[in-house]
Amino acid sequence: MAPLVLPLAILLALQPCCVAGFGLTNLLPSNNDQRKKRLRFLATRSNEESSSSVASTFEEIARGGQAELLLSHSSVSSYFEPESRKGKLLRLANQCRHSYLTTGIAHIPQFVRLDLVDKMVEEAINLQQREECFYSTEDHTVYQEPNDSSFAQDHPRNALQRSSKWIIDFDRIDQGSSPLAILYKSPELKAFVSYVVRSDSEIKDDALYTSGCPYNAAYYNLYEPNDGLGWHFDKSQFGVNLELQPGELGGDFELCWNTREDDSAWCFDKVQNVLDVSDDAHSPVAQRIQDPPVGPGSLVFFAGARNLHRVTPVVSQKPRINAIMTFETQPNQRPNAYSLKKFFGR
Ligand SMILES: O=C(O)CCC(=O)C(=O)O
């Protein structure tokens, strides 16, 4: 196979069915003028930018032969008339982007073919059974910053949250045959992610990058009974989560939209409000993906630096399994030594 064809083979297995937010049925801009403006912007942009930029990479996918190929080989190809295929791909990306920008999250159900999802679940479970994994457990502040003794221990600045899960890092995954590794390294997926999560000015600036770290690039999470993640803000602007095996009970991803106005604000009152009313099962002030629910093969984008989020403790025996794919806005980014030790045992 030519170098481009291998990653493409995986991308051909993607199933772009629809995009869902939190129970919103129509996530496209309701205003037709806005929609046209957006499409016009996309159409002109590819002429203005260099061929190496993410925007033009995506334009090539959306307009050119790759989109034809992608859609004609995916299982949803029969949903589309040939002449409207390119438009459908662009619409999927725009729906996703709109949902991400207006609710902090975008969800594409059944993004990856189920036989590949099964392969990834099998790989994760096999590696865990061979003890090729690390049990990451910690008490941390919501901000993932060390304690500040000028605040009381129960102040939102210092209040501790408990998180635990098994992690199978990128270095343990078979780079040649794992669908996760191949999908993560495909330029098409990166272009799609960039299109969804970056603002227009950022897209103009340039691309996203895969991680420079051999461990956190793409990794499996396994949440067993009582495992979960306490409320936290991420250090990175956004997260991309491929759901493989949702928890049967518990293990829900919850997000509080617009908890803080920028990635470094403290916003103690809003954080306190979330902590005050939360119990393990369900937060009345958070959003959950419900309609349709997150299922095997769902791709979830979330803006984790601005929006407080958590994974509720898993209650059922069956583990919740997902994969996190790390994309960065700067080349060669790596977590600091503390995070590597704490989360990956490296
Ligand atoms: O496992 C998940 O669904 C979310 C993980 C998460 O919250 C994070 O990576 O910050």
UniProtKB/TrEMBL annotation:
PROSITE patterns: FE2OG_OXY (PS51471). One of its GO terms (molecular function) is oxidoreductase activity. Keywords: Iron, Metal-binding, Oxidoreductase, Signal. Residues 214-331 form the Fe2OG dioxygenase domain. Residues 1-20 form the signal peptide. The keyword Mitochondrion does not apply. It holds the Pfam family HalD. Belongs to the iron/ascorbate-dependent oxidoreductase family. This is Fe2OG dioxygenase domain-containing protein. The lineage of its organism: Eukaryota, Sar, Stramenopiles, Ochrophyta, Bacillariophyta.
